[in-house]
Design brief:
It contains two helices and five strands, in the order αβββββα. It has 132 residues and is an alpha+beta fold. The two termini are 57 Å apart.
């Protein structure tokens, strides 16, 4: 390592001056090495922080994707689109007329002539079902 020092050794120096200059250079070297070590520690700390933030970003992106999928699963669908599973669903029979209806896997139960509702969606979960 090339260290520039204010203190330099010269051939004309006395032994006492040379020892003093050598000690000053050794002290300066120790200070520079301590500063280097502190910078390495800081670099490692920031690297660790960056890695944690990247992992957290990945976790948050997964959570957002899960929430978006859950939201998409709760959206209204046209009545001519059949649900994937049998069960009870929230329906819209006419403008501002919400109800619940059962789908048996083939037809909607309780609708005259087995006509589908205008729109349907899964019954939204209650607050206690969504609270962790």
């Amino acid at each position: 390592m090339n260290v520039t020092s204010k203190t330099k050794l010269h051939p004309e120096m006395s032994r006492k001056e040379a020892v003093r200059a050598f000690r000053a250079m050794r002290e300066e070297l120790a200070r520079v090495e301590a500063e280097r070590d502190a910078l390495r520690d800081e670099r490692d700390r920031y690297h660790g922080l960056a890695c944690r933030l990247l992992r957290q970003r990945g976790d948050l992106r997964r959570q957002v994707a899960e929430l978006e999928a859950a939201l998409a699963a709760q959206q209204w669908r046209p009545g001519n689109e059949k649900p994937d599973a049998t069960g009870w669903y929230q329906t819209i029979e006419a403008e501002d007329c919400y109800s619940h209806a059962a789908f048996d896997g083939a037809v909607w139960q309780g609708y005259p002539g087995n006509n589908p509702p205008l729109f349907w969606r899964p019954i939204p979960p209650t607050a206690s079902e969504t609270t962790p």
